[in-house]
């Protein structure tokens, strides 16, 4: 008889994940075992010999999930400005560069001056991320090391997997909010990296959820000297890198006028276009420049709502995916007003469908949305991949974003329908389920949740095996 080792957590129910772009697998009635370190140790149908053996021996320990619910990998948010969470949902009527002056820099400077406020804002941010199912997040912070350490501590304490970036910027349109020199900025980045790592050193490796990230804000706020030094620091330490790239016409023109080259060339020149780097937006990159990202194994954080407000054109998502570019989704708080990646998924699909419509009109052809013909549109299944497994791969989390043995158990429990009472959950409505006597989750039910679901459908969440919700 097949033996299965004891587990720290045993769950039986429906699993849903996206192992590949456009693929949604529904694993009905599976047994999932998680070891004491928070890794998946066993996953197979509950009817299999190994699963039946475990269930018979540990029946009282196995938690069975309701048939109208399912486990899904947690979401990954590849671009979020933590201090801007303070004014989320305001000031979106201004152009990007003016918005930075009027809102972003002031808010960031305020948190750097008020550690108690920073702790309050970041504590609430961590709570909101948990509520919306975000288990991993790539964060822009502020320029002050201590404030970013508060951010790191709040994320670690809340159990959220976080990559924290202390901003590096020796140039600014706000004189009081910049670092005094490239040398000072480099030393501050090095100091933050060391202290951020030290802040989680007391934990065993699998419990260290926070990592530092080298974060030149974007080319207009960084001298060539600073970018060169940060590139060298990244090469020397293998620390991840994040920044903004080709976000808006104004920002791109600023760089071209000042430096004489496009900002992608600036990043490449200073070795900041490489594996382990995530660049947000990239809306003003052409096909050849997207190829450069692919060749350098650089990922993109696609933030569709923010692009609507602050970029004059959408990101070419379909073309990027066809090229094999690593792409995940971001909320870009507060350039985007919603912290929920579910909205980023919906917006990514909506924007792509509009792009396909424009393509068809301009070419005099018929839109190919939903057909097998070449289309610029992406579907909801593809967006679900981008928010889970795709985002994890973009972050370098190879063992995350799917339900396989050896993967981190980063999961959320979604409840859509109570079959016992024939009652739907939250904003969802189903008809004829009782008459049809269905008791298994279907792809149509998942699509309905994707379109209309909200926080009321999320009844559980785990990161590295630790229950957060």
Model description:
The protein is of the alpha/beta class. The chain folds into two domains: 9-73 and 402-467, Urease, subunit C, domain 1 (Roll); 75-395, TIM Barrel (Alpha-Beta Barrel). Helix content is 39%, strand content 20%. A four-stranded mixed sheet has the order 3-2-1-4, with helices on one face. Strands 5-14-17-18 form a four-stranded antiparallel sheet, with no helix packed on it. A four-stranded parallel sheet has the order 6-7-8-9. Helix 3 runs parallel beside helix 4 (145-158).
Please render the helix and strand layout as text.
Elements: E1 9-17, E2 25-34, E3 40-45, H1 49-57, E4 63-64, E5 69-73, E6 75-81, H2 96-113, H3 115-131, E7 134-140, H4 145-158, E8 161-168, H5 182-199, E9 210-216, H6 224-237, E10 241-245, H7 249-259, H8 263-269, E11 277-281, H9 287-295, E12 299-302, H10 304-310, H11 317-322, E13 327-329, H12 341-363, H13 380-394, E14 411-415, E15 417-418, E16 423-424, H14 433-436, H15 443-452, E17 458-463, E18 466-467
Helix pairs in contact: 2-3, 3-4, 4-5, 5-6, 12-13
Cofactor: Zn(2+)
Domain Amidohydrolase-related: 70-412
Keywords: Hydrolase, Metal-binding, Zinc
């Amino acid at each position: 008889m097949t033996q299965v080792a004891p587990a720290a957590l045993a769950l039986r129910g429906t699993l849903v994940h996206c192992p590949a772009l456009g693929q949604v697998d529904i694993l009905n009635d599976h047994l999932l075992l998680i070891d004491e370190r928070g890794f998946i140790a066993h996953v197979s149908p509950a009817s299999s010999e190994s699963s039946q053996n475990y269930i018979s021996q540990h029946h009282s320990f196995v938690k069975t999930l309701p048939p109208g619910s399912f486990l899904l990998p947690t979401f990954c948010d590849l671009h979020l400005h933590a201090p801007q969470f303070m004014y989320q949902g305001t000031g979106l009527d201004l152009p990007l560069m003016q918005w930075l002056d009027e809102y972003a820099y002031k808010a960031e400077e305020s948190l750097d001056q008020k550690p108690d406020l920073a702790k309050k804002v970041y504590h609430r941010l961590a709570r909101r991320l948990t509520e919306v199912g975000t288990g991993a997040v790539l964060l822009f912070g502020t320029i002050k090391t201590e404030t970013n350490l508060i951010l790191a501590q709040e994320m670690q304490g809340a159990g959220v997997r976080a990559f924290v970036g202390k901003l590096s910027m020796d140039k600014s349109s706000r004189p009081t909010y910049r670092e005094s020199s490239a040398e000072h900025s480099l030393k501050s980045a090095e100091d933050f990296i060391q202290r951020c790592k030290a802040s989680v050193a007391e934990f065993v490796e699998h419990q260290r959820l926070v990592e530092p990230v080298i974060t030149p804000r974007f080319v207009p706020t960084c001298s060539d000297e600073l970018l060169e030094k940060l590139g060298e620091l990244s090469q020397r330490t293998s620390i991840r890198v994040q920044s903004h790239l080709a976000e808006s016409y104004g920002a791109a023109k600023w760089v071209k006028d000042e430096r004489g080259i496009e900002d992608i060339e600036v990043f490449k020149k200073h070795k900041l276009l490489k594996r382990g780097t995530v660049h947000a937006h990239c809306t003003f990159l052409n096909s050849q420049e997207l190829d450069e990202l692919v060749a350098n194994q650089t990922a993109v954080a696609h933030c569709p709502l923010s692009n609507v407000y602050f970029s004059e054109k959408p990101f070419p998502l379909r073309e990027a995916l066809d090229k094999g570019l690593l792409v995940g989704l971001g909320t870009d708080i507060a350039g985007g007003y919603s912290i929920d990646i579910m909205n980023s998924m919906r917006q990514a699909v909506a924007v792509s469908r509009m792009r396909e419509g424009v393509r068809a009109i301009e070419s005099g052809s018929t839109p190919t949305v939903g057909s097998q013909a070449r289309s610029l549109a992406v579907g909801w299944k593809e967006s679900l991949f981008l928010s889970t497994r795709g985002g994890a791969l973009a972050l370098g989390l190879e063992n995350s974003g799917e339900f396989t043995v050896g993967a981190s158990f980063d999961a959320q429990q979604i409840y859509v329908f109570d079959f016992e009472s024939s009652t739907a959950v939250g904003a969802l409505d189903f008809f004829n389920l009782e008459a049809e006597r269905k008791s298994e989750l279907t792809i149509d039910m998942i699509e309905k949740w994707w379109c209309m679901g909200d926080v009321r459908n999320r009844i559980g969440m785990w990161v590295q095996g630790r229950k957060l919700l």
